[in-house]
């Protein structure tokens, strides 16, 4: 008996080649609208003198030339670089130590795991403001220092201390997030390796350096890459600690703060801010490549 | 099938690109530039952080307008205070600016230059006489003809001071300083008597401070800034003296109005500018301070205090210009400004309104004392903030002032650099 003809079957078959595109369309649309288009638009704008309400004209490399002579750009580049140098080593090492600490299954450890993770889910603005209150000239930290007979410290008035305070908040807030990543990696380290090392007479520090670190090295590279990109693009912590002007005389301004300050508002210089954004993008990609290259070198 | 794939690919690209291309299109079908037609149709009205406290007032106002002009419908949107300029920027760039927008003069300037603000001298010049002369003029832009917003409410703030801190420093709490030089002398005295523990001021000087000190801010043509003259240098030199003596708070270089307000609440600084609204806040949050609160006029060395002007701009691309102009005028006319002033501590910009007994007679309370004093000072007040002074210029001035206070450069060098940077930004604004 011949199979009955299904109405519309031919039409369905003809549409099949397009089906993958249809499935991908929502994702493509979202990626195109919110990632690809802004990226291309920023790139194009960086070669124009576009302002918020004025379309602007092509100016070639003028914006990039201006950057070279803009003191605030160099201040921003310096601060963003310092931020990476200050924050990344701490975020690679401290969460690993924390993960080792909470890895053990002892009573009540879930509480500590949750407690260490809490800052990750808290709003950066809220925790930033709490830190501002703590570090204020008349805040809790300075009151404690005064009780101990020390002079108040200008955590929020000295250019370098502001940056250091912001780095502290970034590290404090990031500890829990990277700790979870390390916990997952540590769960895959065979216990036998530790036991064998212990039998061979290796102490805790030696076991950490020769067993744990090599086993989680790829995770450390991942954490270094993620945290360096995030640190280079820092905005909220420094903005909250240093204020909208970027600290005394703008000396704590980071590159992303400079983008925000230059490119927003009714008189924003969108073209120039886009040029700074392009520099941020190039440096970020370079940082990623640097970390991955260092990892490959180590592997070989 | 190659054909259907190609068709699909074209459709996908079109679907991706077309919505995006709409983003920067702006309104190309602008409405009539005059307001002489029939008042009808739907319009959108945007306020600046007013819904939370004044929802019933505005709902009543809109209902009255719609009743007076049948066939009109006003959609009211309110935007938060934070990021208000960015919201307007996005709307202006996207061609979705409301028909009537709550603005301040510095927001009007770039919108007027971009052709987005209706020239009211042409479209609604007959209403000019209803407003205070200075208030109507506050939305004129140097280098352009015309007036670009209806003046709405005015505000000026008194200066609050902590009487007990004055007393501790041996100063008469009933004789507060009135000019900048008197403030500087009192501040140095307080710092000296408290061993640098109590500062008097919490903020670095702003462009309004330079104006109230008597420094000319711009040339007459509005094409260049001039606040680096001898008087400006003198003001900054005195602030440097205060900073070194700890009479200016050590966190002043990074202070915001909110942070300095908190410092005043905690008794860390002796004086702080504010508004009549702050009294209720003091009463609630710092009862001890409230008992010792002193209220005096804004500090000025010119005899004129600073006033802040709010306005209502009509979108030049509105398709309902007659209705938008009629509504903006309705909201800002004398009767409605007066009724709004009775809701909150603001002052009408309409001619004669400040002579109403509500603004001239005290009833013995602090609230009326502040209100009457403020209304009196508003009669000779000046809007010192140049309308062309953008956020970026404020940052440039602030940063250069900070360098001078830190001793990284002299006050003269700092102001020269600030003027140079602001002039460059002014040129770039076009």
From TrEMBL, chain A:
TM region positions: 21-40, 82-102, 114-134, 160-187, 208-232, 270-292
Organism of derivation: Streptomyces parvulus
Membrane topology category: Multi-pass membrane protein
Family membership noted in the UniProt record: Belongs to the binding-protein-dependent transport system permease family.
The organism's taxonomic lineage, starting at the top: Bacteria, Bacillati, Actinomycetota, Actinomycetes, Kitasatosporales
GO annotation terms (biological process): transmembrane transport
GO cellular component: plasma membrane
InterPro entries reported for this sequence: ABC_transporter_permease, MetI-like, MetI-like_sf
Recorded superkingdom: Bacteria
Protein name: ABC transporter permease
Subcellular location: Cell membrane
Record's keyword terms, sorted: Cell membrane, Membrane, Transmembrane, Transmembrane helix, Transport
